[in-house]
Specification:
Layout lengths: L11 E6 L1 H4 L10 H16 L5 E6 L2 H11 L10 H23 L5 E3 L7 E2 L12 H8 L3 E5 L1 E5 L3 E5 L1 H11 L4 E5 L15 E2 L6 H4 L10 H10 L5 E4 L4 H5 L6 E3 L1
Parallel strand pairs: 1-2, 1-8, 2-5, 3-5, 4-6, 8-10, 9-11
Antiparallel strand pairs: 6-7, 10-11
Length: 260
Amino acid sequence: MSGPDADGRGETVVLKLGGSVITEKDRPETLDGASLATAADAIADVRGSGAADRLVVVHGGGSFGHHHASEHGVSTTDGTRDAVAVMAVHGAMTTLNRFVLSRLHERDVPAVPVHPLSLSARPDGADGRLDVPIGSTTTLLAEGFVPVLHGDGVATDGEGVTVVSGDELVASLAAELDADRVGVCSSVPGVLDGDGEVISRIRTFEDVADVLGASDATDVSGGMAGKVAALLELDVPAHVFGIDGLNRFLSGENPGTRIG
């Protein structure tokens, strides 16, 4: 089980709940209530045991944000200056965020929202680290809260507003918070090989490029390949696992695939 760091602060854990886990991705704005309840139970159970006491949660867009972003032609690279489009994406994501917060509050988890549209900016050229002002999240953690962020719109020089994915937020938060562990809860039990078996550990992208359908890390644009490439850049243990592995991960175990 996790314990305090050398400075006595306790482990800092960044957890991503994939959009495919908490929503039904093929039905616009449809929650997967059972799966979200399972995730909320795991978070509540482990926090009640004293583990993962410094936890940041990031959730994906699933059938909420992605539906509107696609409809308005907004992506991580293509932006919009149409306020109606911005509000459609942001509104859908804050609706999903309220569902996540509600399930956590029902289980006495002190979760509070942090909305990226109000805080974040994408560096010019979209090739640098996402600019996430970290002060509010750090303070919330220190005060005993569980900050809950989500994929959202983000201010972008020259493009108006583009989309920031949950995976991008996880990578930036892990680096800025000096996280001890990162977990990505996915719709699959880990990164799968060509036979559908979970790969226990990935140390380099080249080891799995063929399996993930990309020739190297520069080719990736999303999906599992994008997750693996982003996690490999972190100087922190990261794991990809399914909903059944969430409680184990939060308890300090190593379910699914270890990245790095």
